[in-house]
Write a structure and sequence with these properties.
Blueprint: E1 4-12, H1 19-35, E2 38-47, H2 60-70, E3 77-79, H3 82-85, H4 92-111, H5 120-123, H6 128-131, E4 138-145, H7 146-151, H8 160-170, E5 172-175, H9 182-187, H10 190-194, E6 199-202, H11 212-220, H12 231-240, H13 253-256, H14 277-280, H15 304-312, E7 318-322, E8 328-332, E9 376-377, E10 386-391, E11 394-399
Parallel strand pairs: 1-2, 1-4, 2-3, 4-5, 5-6
Antiparallel strand pairs: 7-8, 9-10, 10-11
Helix pairs in contact: 2-12
């Protein structure tokens, strides 16, 4: 049996026509030819009438013009403007029947040499091979996406008579989309199962989720839609300012200047970084001139060499003891001596600033320290990182990071 000649007809808004609309025809033709049961001799795009009343639907004059521009590079897909020229909106069944009747009339007229009696304006969409004397019958099939197939299950949207006429008399070629299962939907419908031999499911393995809805949204936001629809269609949209678009590609500064502007109530926070007192405090006690700096004192006898070695390797535990008179001393961890030589005491009486600490002399006293109340803070340190609080009970360290004393 010879393959059936078919014309693929796509109904819809085409608001605007995208590259995916054109890809559907190519995918369907490849699949039908691969099956060997059909031969695609033409394709038709029939934009819906303005009376359809869909939200954001541009006027038919604009949509027809955009489809013509989109089809300029196609040698087998044509535009049918019959639906848009009617006085009101027509159902899909009527659109299919009109085109099928005219194809049959052309085939009959060509066989009887009466083709010249037909109005050229009514048949300009007919494929050339049909007009040139095709002897076989030609069938009009509805080309659609899986979402249209599933809309058959929406209560009140389609009548049973329309579904039976569309699927039973003409047939469907359905292009799959992600998150859809047309076979399962057909199985759950008695009507579709009855005519499932007239439904061809085409799997699109190269996923392309471009839709007119997403295109319109991007155009409203002045975002780029290049390569999603033909360049001539995009130029037409910008020229006529359709879908709220502008000629610019991205948002201008006056629109996005307030993006990321902080609220007056926002609190700026700095991310702390690992550090230690040698980096935070700019004073002689923590300077890197180890030879001039006094080593950590201990209650037991520690040679200067050992003390310097301890400083060169920070991180050792120390103990700070406050005397009854308010003086403080630093005791190395592990010391067993209970007696403290007065000349070895670290006189840290409530120093107001780490910067006031001079170089410690051999007698281990601190000069130029100022006496204050029982509680003072070391304010020269970065307050976001570390604080020293001197009390009569000792030195308290408050820090958001790990600090070596």
């Amino acid at each position: 049996m010879s393959p059936v000649k078919v014309i693929l007809l796509a109904c819809g808004s085409f608001n605007p026509p995208t590259n995916m609309h054109l890809r559907m025809f190519e995918i369907a033709r490849d699949h039908l030819h691969r099956l060997g049961s059909h031969v695609v001799i033409g394709g038709l795009i029939s934009p819906v009438h303005d009376g359809y009343g869909k939200k954001d639907l541009e006027a038919a004059t604009h949509r027809l013009a955009m489809v013509r521009l989109a089809l300029q590079n196609s040698d087998w897909i044509k535009l049918s403007d019959w639906e848009c020229k009617q006085e009101t909106w027509n159902r899909t069944k009527q659109v299919l029947q009109y085109h099928q009747n005219h194809v049959n009339a052309i085939l009959h007229s060509s066989r009887n040499s009466h083709f010249d009696k037909l109005n050229e304006d009514d048949v300009h969409w007919v494929p050339d091979n049909v007009r040139n004397g095709c002897e076989d019958s030609v069938q009009i099939k509805l080309l659609c996406g899986a979402d249209l197939l599933e809309s058959f299950g929406t209560p009140g949207l389609w009548s049973d008579d329309d579904i039976e006429a569309i699927v039973g008399q003409h047939g469907l070629v359905v292009i799959t989309r992600s998150n859809t299962n047309p076979l399962e939907f057909i199985y759950n419908s008695d009507m579709l199962t009855k005519y499932m031999s007239n439904i061809t499911i085409v799997t699109e393995w190269i996923r392309n989720e471009v839709s007119s809805t997403k295109i319109r949204r991007a155009l409203r936001r002045s975002e780029s839609v290049k390569y999603l629809l033909p360049d001539k269609v995009l130029d037409y949209i910008h020229k006529h300012h359709l879908y709220g678009s502008k000629s610019i590609k991205y948002l201008t500064p006056e629109f996005n200047s307030n993006f990321l502007t902080p609220s007056p109530s926002d609190v700026l926070m700095e991310s702390p970084s690992p550090t230690n007192c040698m980096i935070i405090c700019n004073n002689t006690l923590f300077s890197r001139n180890y030879e001039k700096r006094l080593s950590i004192d201990t209650v037991d006898s520690v040679t200067k060499a050992n003390a310097l070695n301890n400083i060169r390797h920070p991180g050792q535990a120390v103990k700070i003891i406050t005397e009854s008179n308010g003086d403080h001393r630093i005791v190395k961890e592990g010391s067993n001596s209970k007696e403290v030589r007065r000349e070895d005491k670290k006189v840290l009486k409530n120093s107001k600033s780490c910067a006031n600490i001079d170089e410690l002399h051999a007698k281990n006293t601190i000069k130029n320290s100022k006496s204050n109340a029982n509680l003072k803070e070391c304010k020269s340190c970065d307050e976001n990182l570390i604080k020293f609080i001197f009390t009569k009970h000792g030195i308290q360290v408050i820090s958001d990071v790990e600090t070596i004393v």
